[in-house]
Amino acid sequence: MKFTDYLFEEVKNIWQEYLEHPFIKELGEGTLPKEKFKNYLVQDYLYLKEFGKVFAMCLIKSKTIEEMNFFSRAISASIEYETAVHVSYMNKLGVPPKIAETCKYEITTDNYTSYMQAIALKGNLREIVISTMPCNWSYNYIGHYLLDNYKETLEGNYYKEWIDMYSEGKFDENLREWLDYVNYLCRDISNEERENLKEIFIKSSLHELEFWNMAYKETKEGDLCLV
Ligand SMILES: Cc1ncc(CN)c(N)n1
Predict the structure, then answer these.
(1) Does the ipTM surpass 0.90?
(2) Which of 16, 57, 93, 183 could link 120 by a cystine bridge, Cβ 3.0 to 4.6 Å?
(3) Which domain holds residue 26?
(4) What is the pLDDT of residues 169-188, one digit of tens each?
(5) For residues 169 and 175, what is the distance between their CA atoms, to the nearest angstrom?
(6) Rounded to whole angstroms, how far apart are CA atoms 189 and 186?
(7) CATH at 76
(8) Domain Thiaminase-2/PQQC, which positions (predicted)?
(9) Does the residue 192 lie in any domain?
(10) Residue 186 among the catalytic residues
(11) What is the pLDDT of residue 227?
C-alpha cells in the first residue's frame, strides 16, 4: 500500500465531515451568505501567507537544488496562483489585499498556522511536508466532490470560480506531483516514524475541520476582525 493511501485511510472519516459541512454544502448550492464567504476569504488569505512561509522553511532544509525548486514552486503556488482567486473575490466584496492584511488572525487561523510553523522550525523535512499535506489534498478532494455533485447548477453559482480552481487540471497535476513526492520521501521509514507522521497528518486534518467550523460560525455584517 502506498504511504499516501495509508494516510488517507486514517483520515477519511474526518474528510467526510468536510464534505457534509454546511459551509461546503452551501458553497455547492451557491446559497452561502456572501458575508460568511468574505470573512472566510480574509482568514484564508492570511492563512496562505503563513502557509507559504512553511514551504520557505522546507526550502531552507532541502538537500538538493531539485528539492529547492520544488518548494520554491510551492511558495508561488500558495501566494500567487491560489491567492489570485482570493484577490478576485476580495476585490468584488470590498476587501482588497491591503485591507485584508490589516485584519486580525482568528484564533483558529493562528492555531493551524502556528502548528505547521512549529514543525517547520523544529521538525525534519518529512514531518513538515506531512503537516502541509491535508491542505491542498483535502481542498482538491472537496473541489471534485462539489464539481461532481453540483455540476448541473454550477453555471450560475457565485462560488464557481472557487470550485473551479480546486478541481481544475492544474491543481490535480500539482497534487499528483506532491503525492508522488511524499511516497518517495517516506519510502523507507520505520514503524515509529510512520506512526509519528500519521499523527501529524491527523492533527492537520483536524485543524482543517476547525477552519471550516470557524468559517461557518455566526458573523455580523462588517465583522472582519479589523485591527
Ligand atoms: C485552511 C486552508 N486549507 C487548505 C487550503 C488549500 N490550499 C486553503 N486555502 N486554506
Answers:
(1) yes
(2) 57
(3) 3-216
(4) 999 999 999 999 999 999 99
(5) 10
(6) 6
(7) 1.20.910.10
(8) 10-217
(9) yes
(10) no
(11) 42
Is 197:126 a contact under the CB 8 Å cutoff? yes
The one catalytic residue in 208, 210, 218, 225 is 208
Q: How far is the CA of 174 from the centre of ligand 1 (A)?
A: 14
Pocket of ligand 1 (CB under 6 A): 44, 47-48, 82, 135-136, 139, 208, 211
| Contacts with 5 (C-beta within 8 Å, 6 or more apart), sequence order | none
Residue type, 155: E
Instruction: Name which residue sits closest to atom 2 of ligand 1, judged by CA.
Output: 135
What percent of the chain stands above pLDDT 90?
96
Count of the separate structural domains present in the chain: 1
To test the pocket of ligand 1, the residue of 24, 43, 51, 172 to mutate (highest count of ligand atoms within 8 Å of its CB) is 51
Q: Per-residue pLDDT tens for 146-156?
A: 999 999 999 99
- Averaged pLDDT, 130-135: 98
| Residue 58 bears catalytic tag | no
Within a domain: 30: yes
